[in-house]
Amino acid sequence: MSDVPELVTLHVWRIPxxxxxxxxxxxxxxxxxxxxxxxxxxxxxxxxxxxxxxGPGDADLTRWAALVAWDSPAAAAGFDASPVGRxxxxxxxxSARVELRPLTSRGEWxxxxxxxxxxGGRVDGPVLALTRARLxxxxxVTFWRAIPPVAAALHAAPGLLARFGVGEAPLGWQGTVSxxxxxxxxxxxxxxxxxxxxxxxxxxxEGWYAEELFARFEVRDVVGDRxxxxxxxxxxxxxxxxxx
Length: 244
Hints:
oxidoreductase; 8-stranded antiparallel beta barrel; monooxygenase activity; monooxygenase; about 30% helix
């Protein structure tokens, strides 16, 4: 479909603690630059967290990310040479790029539907799930209290290859990135695990979110240092790497 980007990329950088002030300055200056990079139809710079609590204490100041939807793969190929890409590379000591094809997307991000209405399709290898929400300030504390059991269950979920939190701001702009060995593992956790099902059931009644988005992607490639993503190194992950 015409509104579905052919390629979405997730760029993740690991930086030393001494570079944190420079990263914060880039987070202030670069969102507009990213949006105006040739070929970018949607782009967000993101802080990250461990994904264990999604509260203020979860932030990881040594890892930063950018999620970008592109007009074409040719445009995406120029990111590393763009002003934003070069600037982050100067302070990073490790990085990874995940190349993604949208499979499903529901909801909005900053009033937009950045991944359109993907038609789905069969996938035999790894998939990435993205959740993003803007919390209602009065409901944030309740949300943070509800998350630890879900995060603990996610950590132990079969087929999980990587996971971390993402956010556009330290408070109230929450999200998760998780990579799974295959779609069946993701579905098993999302719809069959009791802790996650309970959280889903509470969402309409609690009114946690002012805006939310959930999307799934086929992982087409992972380039660079997978440890930046928190990629696990067990046998299941080694098997899945052959598909990515």
